[in-house]
Amino acid sequence: MKYNDYYNYINFDSLEIDWTAFEKESQNAIFKVLRFESDVVDDKDYINWFSYQNVWYTANINNTTDCPNINKIVKIFEKVMQEKYLENNKIIQSKLQLTFLLTKANEEIIKHTDLWESSIALNIRFYEDTSPITFTDIGDVFYKIGLLNVKHEHMVKASNKDRLVFRITPLNQDYQYVCECFDKAGLLIKS
Ligand SMILES: [Fe+2]
Asked: What one-character DSSP code corresponds to residue 28?
């Protein structure tokens, strides 16, 4: 079966996640302004924006000891993908990235595509009154939990408050394969 190649909705209701406590797990994280870290893109506007922007912050989570909700989600991810991502609560960073993303109010994120190895994003959007993701080809996609194929060009419009997202990125995976794994686990919402 071929899944929507831009986005699919994921349902975590059965996991009984404490969303308020989960959001609080971002408070211990150390946020840094995101700077352009690759020379593979030959796009001056893009490079310039990432060189001076002061609106988009990221915080990597490499240890889930103090983050029980994140730990729970990674364990589900291990089950779904039939992979090992945790060793003594430490993330195996060659296989998985966990990141809180914070975009400042009234600021947008420039059009871009993510690098191939990290082009799958299972995003959890904490506040429904903040911006969706906007794909150049298909427009706005609102989601609570979205499995996104960010190798397709996309941007984020400005919100009138800070926008917080938690992102799980399985590295070097095929988007359709990841969708299939979530579907088999009964967590992908069929549209
Ligand atoms: Fe992106």
From this structure: G
